[in-house]
Specification:
Blueprint lengths: L5 E4 L10 H11 L3 E4 L6 H18 L2 E5 L2 H6 L4 E4 L6 H8 L4 E6 L2 H10 L3 E4 L16 H11 L4 E4 L7 H6 L5 E3 L1 H4 L4 H12 L4
Helix pairs in contact: 1-2, 1-9
The chain binds the ligand Cc1ncc(COP(=O)(O)OP(=O)(O)O)c(N)n1, the ligand Cc1nc(C(=O)O)sc1CCOP(=O)(O)O and magnesium ion.
Pathway: Cofactor biosynthesis; thiamine diphosphate biosynthesis; thiamine phosphate from 4-amino-2-methyl-5-diphosphomethylpyrimidine and 4-methyl-5-(2-phosphoethyl)-thiazole: step 1/1
Organism: Salipaludibacillus aurantiacus
InterPro entries: Aldolase_TIM (IPR013785), ThiamineP_synth_sf (IPR036206), ThiamineP_synth_TenI (IPR022998), TMP_synthase (IPR034291)
């Protein structure tokens, strides 16, 4: 799987009146190198149309495109991957549908889940929610940076820290060993999306 470090997930609720493709293009220009379509309210048709537009955008900029939840949509638009949670189709079942080339990311909130995902062939895992977040309805309580340290020490596949990560606390997450960070609201809700992503990328590359 191509390397990535700044992971933007769509959050249309945070940018009313702005087109999701335009917001994600600003994120990419600012340095986001992986984009995920996450739509909890749209119809299947609406999700497909957004996925088609974001697939075109991510091909134009040569960044990874992931679809959350909707395996069928991901396959229909030839997305690079899917992201599944602990209550979604198990990875082994999803792999039977997608075949070997599809990137499969798995959410994890405990080291046992991380070890299981690694054993079952996940291409990457999400590790979170690091801090409290209002961007996910059924979110578990914060796992804190202690979980990041544990995943760093015990898991060999790529992992991305997620959950309540902002410019003011991202250094804590990096100091805990994360090399990849994922956000919804800090990016999608920003007045200047490109500038926020540039700032985050600078932090990822070692600047403060
Ligand atoms: C990179 C990344 N990590 C975690 C999640 C959460 O996915 P999931 O547990 O399926 O919850 P929803 O996002 O579907 O509410 C993610 N989407 N991306
Ligand atoms: C979608 C999601 N998944 C999480 C997990 O822990 O699996 S936390 C989360 C919400 C991330 O949004 P924000 O960057 O606005 O906090
Ligand atoms: Mg999901």
């Amino acid at each position: 799987m191509k390397e990535f470090s700044l992971y933007a997930i769509t959050g249309e609720e945070f940018h009313p009146g702005k087109n999701v493709v335009d917001v994600m293009e600003e994120a990419i220009i600012g340095g986001a190198d992986i984009i995920q379509l996450r739509d909890k309210t749209g119809s299947k048709r609406e999700v497909l149309e957004k996925a088609q537009a974001l697939r075109e955008l991510t091909l134009k900029h040569n960044v990874i495109f992931i679809v959350n939840d909707h395996i069928d949509v991901a396959m229909a638009v030839h997305a690079d991957g899917i992201h599944l949670g602990q209550d979604d189709l198990p990875l082994t079942e999803a792999r039977k549908i997608t075949g070997k080339d599809m990137i499969i990311g798995i959410s994890t909130h405990h080291i046992d889940e991380a070890k299981a995902a690694e054993k079952e062939g996940a291409d990457y895992i999400g590790a979170g929610p690091v801090f409290a977040t209002n961007s996910k309805a059924d979110v578990t309580s914060p796992v804190t940076t202690d979980y990041i340290k544990q995943v760093k020490a015990e898991i060999s596949i790529p992992f991305v820290a997620i959950g309540g990560i902002k410019r003011h606390n991202v250094n804590e997450v990096l100091e805990a060993g994360a090399e990849r960070i994922c956000m919804i609201s800090e990016i999608s809700g920003a007045k200047d999306v490109r500038s926020v992503c540039m700032e985050l990328r600078a932090k990822l590359e070692g600047g403060n």
